[in-house]
Amino acid sequence: MPTAAATAHPPAWPTTMKIVVVGPPGGGASSLVAAVSDLPVTGPVGREFGRRTLGTTVVYLFTLAQSAWWLVWPGTLIGAHAVIVVVPTSRLPEAYPLLDATAGSGLPYAVVVDRFGDPVRHHPAEIREALATDPSVPVIACDVRDRAAAQAAFTDLVSRLRPHQ
Amino acid sequence: MIAHTPLLGTDNSARTALFSSLLDRLTAQVPGVVHAIAMSSDGLVLAATKSLPADRADQLSAAVAGQVSLANATCAVLDAGVYQYTMQVMAAGTLVIKPAADGTAFAAITRHDGDTGQTAFHLAEIANQLGTAIQPGQRNGG
Description:
- Chain A has helices at 4-8, 29-36, 69-77, 92-105, 124-131, 147-161, and strands at residues 16-22, 49-54, 57-64, 82-88, 109-114, 139-142.
- By secondary structure, chain A is an alpha/beta fold.
- In chain B, strands 2-1-5-4-3 form a 5-stranded antiparallel beta sheet, sandwiched between helices.
- The chains are: A alpha/beta, B alpha+beta.
């Protein structure tokens, strides 16, 4: 529950937030957006658009999960508050260039490890180590095709990625 | 690059009102234009004609943003100078996109019998008015 002090001052969070969801093609980025969007997801494969309202914040979601992602990377990041990198456990190396570019953008970011089709179920700590991400970067593992799990992971990440003023 | 015309969370009400009136005038003046939007460089709706429900406007804006960033990238690959227009001809009509210098873009959808040349011309006029239109917003924001 919010404290009296917190409710006395409305949160300085923006009423709109743009998050770019990136990942290898077919690696779960689009599935994550489809699982959390309260609009039918539109757009070409790997360039989908979704929208989700959380409390008073409207989160606009733009996926970038295409092979020539670097071509439209700067344009897609304009005005973005944060990036979510979706990494399929079976294809970690494909995410390295995306993680490098994301870290280089200077934006807050988080990693969603998509466990779909992964019988081993690596621990997030192992995956964090394999990806060599900074300890401050949230890493969450879930099967993004599991709607409830994807929603829980997403809301958790949005609260951690929200800009604080 | 990322900070290019950051518009989210800032007060754009004056700008939005101006763009709304310009877009509504466009649909009134050019026969065959059914919808129009103004999109900020981050891909979100700045203004839309009353004909477009908010959900559709958000989706169209995101689609236009994708086209604009791909068109800009294509111009760079071809070393072809500044991106001028996009026309997407469809069975039911044409989507005309006109980017402005600051990353804002304007788009209109015409019926299949609409005058796309007139539409493009009017979108360019709106884009050209942008230089003066954004001045007050920038002063207030700074």
